[in-house]
Amino acid sequence: MKLGLDISGGDFAPRANVLGAILALEQLPDDVELVLIGRENDITSILEEKGVKSDRISVVDAPDVITMEDHPTRAIPQKPNSSISVGFELLSQNKIDSFASTGNTGAMLVGSMYKVNAIPGVIRPCITSVLPTVNGGDSIILDVGANADCKPDVLYQFASLGSLYAKNVMNISDPRIGLLNIGEEEGKGNLLTQSAYKLMKESKDFNFIGNIEGRDLFTGKADVVVCDGFTGNVVLKQAEGMYTITRQLGIKDDYLERFNYENYGGTPILGVNSDVIIGHGISNDVAVKGMLCLAYDVAKSELTQKIKEAFK
Amino acid sequence: MKLGLDISGGDFAPRANVLGAILALEQLPDDVELVLIGRENDITSILEEKGVKSDRISVVDAPDVITMEDHPTRAIPQKPNSSISVGFELLSQNKIDSFASTGNTGAMLVGSMYKVNAIPGVIRPCITSVLPTVNGGDSIILDVGANADCKPDVLYQFASLGSLYAKNVMNISDPRIGLLNIGEEEGKGNLLTQSAYKLMKESKDFNFIGNIEGRDLFTGKADVVVCDGFTGNVVLKQAEGMYTITRQLGIKDDYLERFNYENYGGTPILGVNSDVIIGHGISNDVAVKGMLCLAYDVAKSELTQKIKEAFK
């Protein structure tokens, strides 16, 4: 298995990315190879400095960088020698099995949509995030920002995608799917959730448990929380903001510490033809390692293949 | 000034409501009278038990109760002798200056819309909630649930209503209005927030400072956070849920304690012709006292009159 990693993306590139790759190499099985994509000189000098020489690491030179200032839709055609463009090129040629980056999220989404494409039948690929639950488990929420406006059938598909992810990557046997809403009973909500509820309650594709409210996000009431990308993004950033505040206040608690992004590393883009993982722009080496471990878990689970079969 | 209080609403009625009224009486100025609306026998026996005899307290008998199970739109016509129905009747006859209840929120909204009516020019009245900020202040967010689906011009009006509330009740001289969104720059967001941004940035009615994200909800970046009622309700319940979890975990912190609903008591329905205040169903006596103090502040500020003038 070959996992591609963008070395030029993120706030602490290239150093944190190369160091993260070194950490991941120690943790991942021997048959996993890492393909580091970025400025070759930068990469080799950090590897040399750390005395790392492994035939499980290869380097692909990509001299250019897509920055956070680049326009997502224009960046890839305008910068064909950037690490993100080269990564998608390798992925579409099957020279890597997965591509992970902490760089420009918009460019990663655009690359996923136009270089590897949505799986036939998937209306809108989406991204997910982990919700640490107070009982010690993890739930996920999707979409968290790829699709600000959604139709009811799109929410229905998010439920299917989330259920497949929870089953195959998180090893939850019969994931409970909740619709994020502003009341528990059927009939509550805005026009979108009212319609989505009607579609979802008839589903044989997943185990729908009904509406869940904002206060249930962290209680583990649902394994998969479905919402439009606008609401999901607000939820995610509110949780991040609250975690940041508890840190500033010096509050130390094992549960709250689980909101530290370092623990998650990244999220796959669900519903595209190849494995694409995006990570937080502020990722340090531990977070990059986490992102690569997630890339491995996703590839090993054959999630993408299973989504293709489910949407046939 | 006469403040009406529903004695039959909420989980701990009638006792918590009467005790809250007694606490409020001690705190409010001498020219404030309280009108307690509910089962007369219940009320007088609690007052007697507490040895309270004051010409600042009067009782209006309302033998029936609108429960949480009653349908919001049907409850008021079906139960004309309920405390909520009688309260709105007194309010529409100007026999009280303000009506506060911790009972069925839906029925309170319906009563506000059909018994006291929206102020001419206000498309959709709304409800607001306090966001305690980490720097020690308070922001507000609106709408938090009265309007699940909103148009851009409705969000614009929420900004006006929130600005008037912040100025007149919270005494913030030039309130900063932020639009809750999923990116900071203009052009980010869903169709609703993209359009609302365009309307709001041209505004001379309030001081628009642009988009704010979920992570800024508790930093005091904006004094007034504007969003549709679906998003606002999720934000509010997520914050409540996180507060509950920190309590369960035994985390004690002065800032987090500010999320305790007891500190706020209630919220006015903004944009209707008379002062209506709704409180949390789980309100104890301290929360009921807080609701009455808020009712006093709102009435004293002449907010409703100022909204009428602004929307002329």
UniProtKB/TrEMBL annotation, chains A, B:
GO terms for molecular function: phosphate:acyl-[acyl carrier protein] acyltransferase activity. Its main location: cytoplasm. InterPro entries: FA_synthesis, Phospholipid_synth_PlsX-like. GO terms for cellular component: cytoplasm. It catalyses: a fatty acyl-[ACP] + phosphate = an acyl phosphate + holo-[ACP]. Pathway: Lipid metabolism; phospholipid metabolism. Signal peptide: none annotated. Transmembrane segments: none annotated. Keywords: Acyltransferase, Cytoplasm, Lipid biosynthesis, Lipid metabolism, Phospholipid biosynthesis, Phospholipid metabolism, Transferase. It is found in: Cytoplasm. The keyword Lipid biosynthesis applies. One of its GO terms (biological process) is fatty acid biosynthetic process. SUPFAM superfamilies: Isocitrate/Isopropylmalate dehydrogenase-like. It holds the Pfam family FA_synthesis. Its EC number is 2.3.1.274. Homodimer. Probably interacts with PlsY. Catalyzes the reversible formation of acyl-phosphate (acyl-PO(4)) from acyl-[acyl-carrier-protein] (acyl-ACP). This enzyme utilizes acyl-ACP as fatty acyl donor, but not acyl-CoA. PANTHER family: FATTY ACID/PHOSPHOLIPID SYNTHESIS PROTEIN PLSX, PHOSPHATE ACYLTRANSFERASE. Belongs to the PlsX family. This is Phosphate acyltransferase. It comes from Brumimicrobium aurantiacum. The lineage of its organism: Bacteria, Pseudomonadati, Bacteroidota, Flavobacteriia, Flavobacteriales.
